[in-house]
Amino acid sequence: MIVTVTANPSVDRTIDLPGPFSRGDVLRATGVRSQPGGKGINVSRVVAEAGLATLALLPARDGDRLLHQLDAAALNYRTVPIDDDVRTNLTLTEPNGITTKINEAGARLSAAVLTQLTELIVDAASAAQWVALCGSLPPGVPADWYAVVADRLHAAGVPVAVDTSGPPLTAIAGARPELLKPNAFELAELTGDDGAAMEGAALLGDVTRTAGAARTLAEQTGGAVLTTLGAAGALLTLASGSWFATPPRIAIRSTVGAGDSSLAGYLIAQQRGGDPAEWLRTAVAYGSAAAALPGTTPPTPGDLNLAGVHVHPVR
Ligand SMILES: Nc1ncnc2c1ncn2[C@@H]1O[C@H](COP(=O)(O)OP(=O)(O)OP(=O)(O)O)[C@@H](O)[C@H]1O
Ligand SMILES: [Mg+2]
Hints:
This protein is 36% helix and 23% strand. The protein is built from ten helices and 14 strands. The strands form two sheets. The protein has a ten-stranded mixed β-sheet, with helices on both faces. Strand 4, helix 2 and strand 5 form a beta-alpha-beta unit. The longest helix is centred in the C-terminal third of the chain and has 16 residues, at 276-291. The structure holds adenosine-5'-triphosphate and magnesium ion. Residues 183, 228-231, 233-234, 247, 250, 252, 255-260, 262, 284, 287-288, 291 line the site of adenosine-5'-triphosphate (ATP).
């Protein structure tokens, strides 16, 4: 079972515009979609589509519209009740492919709710092969909360995967997570490098710089580092070696949630056995399948082009 934690879930509302976004005007939507959002929920949806057991943990009021959406998607979840509504994250899409995102901060979690959520995670973890801690932390949650949760999970012998950014990412690195999934910019934040330069070089097939930064981080955490590099693919760094994988050629629809699908793909493959190259291949195939689907639609095994992913060892 793969347990995911989404401390700051959302309802993702996507509005399609008929032309360029123009500030100050009245704009008419040509389409609108509302999908469950939040990184852990995205990971759980992909894992469930692959036919593996998953449980999504989140704070939400009983009857919240997000929970209706999760029920409609038949997703297995457990909540800690809160008073506020789950936030709405708005995406405006233009026909030229440019998207504008407006994210609310999210409902503030009290110390009591946070304690309940921590205990729920530790309780659910007894049946877990992995616990994935995903996304930003809402107001009221200290930046080191993931590190606190990781310590509890490690005491129970459960491996921890983390996909976050900013201060929570900096704080988790010292808590020795078994897997970190930064993108190039998040990796650069941690190691003081230049994310755009790393992604640019990777697009030309040169991952020397990214591999060096990822190795520094992997030495610090003692775990695996899966660095996703957008259109360039992804790099996997373990103590035993590094591998770079290039993605299949795809027609991009929406990269929102692509990184979440990469993380799900890695965990799915890892749980099935295989070797690091196979875990990386599956991660990249899932990320690219997500990028080829609209909105945050979770890719299914039938959407994957595993043969289109090329994996190379990195020295
Ligand atoms: N243009 C693209 N072409 C092919 N694959 C892509 C493209 N963009 C993204 N991907 C796939 O998606 C994966 C994850 O992308 P990226 O590194 O942008 O994640 P991210 O920044 O964590 O995204 P998010 O946090 O929004 O989910 C890549 O490793 C790759 O497999
Ligand atoms: Mg990401």
